[in-house]
Every structure is written in structure tokens, then in C-alpha cells.
Amino acid sequence: MIFSETVRRYERLCEENDVPAETVMAYLVELSQRERYDLYVHFEEDMPQDLALEFEKGMQRILNQEPMSHVLGYSWFYGYKMEVNPDVLIPRVETEELCAQILARMDEIFPDAETIETADIGTGSGAIAITLVKEEPKVHMTATDISEEALVTARRNAAVNEADIEFMCGDMVKPLIEAGKKLDVLVSNPPYIPAEEQMERSVVDFEPHVALFGGSDGLKFYRQIFRDCQAVLKEKAFMAFEMGWDQREAMSRLVEEMLPSANYEILKDMNGKDRMLFVYFGCKGA
Ligand code: SAM
Ligand code: GLN
Could you give the number of structural domains in the chain? Predict the structure, then answer.
């Protein structure tokens, strides 16, 4: 089988099955461990048989709406390889932006700190926690999740990426309160999809629902964190959240109501959608 013919055939099948056609080359690049240009240079050559077999097997799953990251068993986040499986949310590119914005604010707000006590609530694969530890050596990280299964994967990802993280199992802020944590930075990408929302099959059939749904308006977990956060935050501290693109108004109301002494801003992602909430205590005008 020739590379070009195989790729074209699967691109057509993707289009017929509502799967983005770019998935074909993306999958081939990962599976063959070759650069894209290198594949194109040899595009009219025969595909090695073992590669062709594995590629066809994986493409069948992808055509059946299974996420490519599940077929591969990993996904890339901020340049780090993260094992993923049905126990954890596949980390999204928007969340990489959240990490970049957090790192910039750590530099700005705590330029002289020796350590930055940080917690990641609902760590899933561990993507956010691992990235912050690797990119900012001053970060002391505690990462929590309610899912024991997710924590098994997060621990493995931390070990493989050599990130020193304290993991705790529990409900939102509770384990941090019980451990007497005092934080400079609290981060969370909680489940924020409203319970009744219609979603793509590749997400709803393959990703853990405990990672997706945030009550009837999607804001249930922000309410819990806003209610309890002051028990674990230092006087000067900030919180960083991912949020849904259509939650700006409801979120603003919630912050103003529940955290009147704080200052906050909502930032857009690279697609121009409202995506990140930063809440400041004792800094940045608050
Ligand atoms: N932090 C990861 C990321 O950004 O890719 C995963 C985020 S996922 C949207 C939300 C995570 O919150 C899931 O791992 C889920 O298990 C966890 N979670 C759900 N309910 C929770 C709760 N009550 N307490 C702690 N974690 C919870
Ligand atoms: N961004 C994810 C999605 O659209 C949801 C993540 C979340 O609920 N925090 O599938």
C-alpha cells in the first residue's frame, strides 16, 4: 500500500464519518514517529507492512469516533507527553493557554518568592500540575481529584515527567482544608458543561462524565470553590480557572456576589472565546 493512496482513502472516509480529515496525518505522524515533511518526501513509496496494519486498525477506531489520543494512549500537553485513557479528560489546547497565563502572573505577582504554594483541583491526567511544576521551579504543587482512577494516571504522568507533586483524593477544596494548606495560587479546570448539554459523540461516549458536567448551569463547582477558597488562600493570592465560552455574565455575577473583596478578569482563548477567569486577593488592584 502506497502512503499517499492510504492517506487519501482515509481522509475521504473521515469526511463521510464526521471526523476531521486532519486526523489522518496527525495519527500517521505519531504512529510512524516520523516528521510530517519526511512522510511527504516518501509519499509515493510503499508503507511498511507492520505500520500499515497498525494504522488501519487505529483508523477504524478513529472512524468510530474514538478520540485519537485514546487510540495512541497519550496526548501532548505543553510539550510534555501525558498518558491518557478513559479515566481522565484528554487535556485541551485551551488549557495550555491557561497554564501560560498562570506562569506569567506568577512571575508578575510573586517575583521574589522562594516558593509558590500552588494547588490544582480536579487534576485529571495531571496536565496542569505537571506543566506548572516543570515550567516554574519555585512551584510546590498539591494536586487533587475526586477520582481515584484519575489519580493513578496522574501519578504515573508525574513520575514519567519527573514532576514532584503531592496528590490527594477528595471533594474540591476539602482535602486542602483538612491538610491545612495555605496557598499562593489555586488553579482549577473543573467540570463546567451544563448537565443537559448536547455534545459530540467523541467526547460524551469516550471521556469520563465526572470530568465534564458541572450541574444544571455548569457552575456548581465554581460555587463550591468560591465558598471555601478563603480557608486555604494566603492574604495575597490568586485563583485561575478555565470556564465555558458562554459563562462570562453568570460567572461575573457569581464572583461579585461571593467574593466581593476580590478583583477579577476574564480572558479570551486564541479563538476569541471567553475561557479563563483570574481572581486576585491582595494584589492586582484588589
Ligand atoms: N485538570 C485536568 C485538565 O485540565 O485537563 C482535568 C480537568 S476535568 C475538566 C475535571 C476534573 O475534575 C476531572 O478529573 C474530575 O475527576 C475532577 N472532579 C470532578 N468532580 C470533582 C470533585 N467534586 N472534587 C475534585 N475533583 C473533581
Ligand atoms: N473543554 C472541555 C470540552 O469542551 C470541557 C472541560 C471542562 O468541563 N472543564 O469537552
Answer: 2
Across the chain, which has 286 residues, the per-10-residue mean pLDDT values are 96 97 98 96 96 98 97 98 98 98 98 97 98 98 98 98 98 98 98 94 94 96 98 98 98 98 97 98 88
Query: What's the gap in Å between 109 CA and the centre of ligand 1?
Result: 26
Domain extent at residue 275: 85-281
The rounded distance, in Å, linking the Cα atoms of 87 and 211 is: 9
**Rounded distance, CA 69 to CA 67, Å?**
5
**How far is ligand 2, taken at its centre, from the CA of residue 198, in Å?**
13
* Cβ-contact 39, 3 below 8 angstroms: yes
pTM for this structure? 0.97
Nearest ligand, CA of residue 98?
1
For the Cβ of 91 lying below 6 angstroms from any atom of ligand 1, the answer is: yes
User: Are residues 112 and 190 both part of a single domain?
Assistant: yes
Pick the residue whose CA is nearest to atom 9 on ligand 2. 191
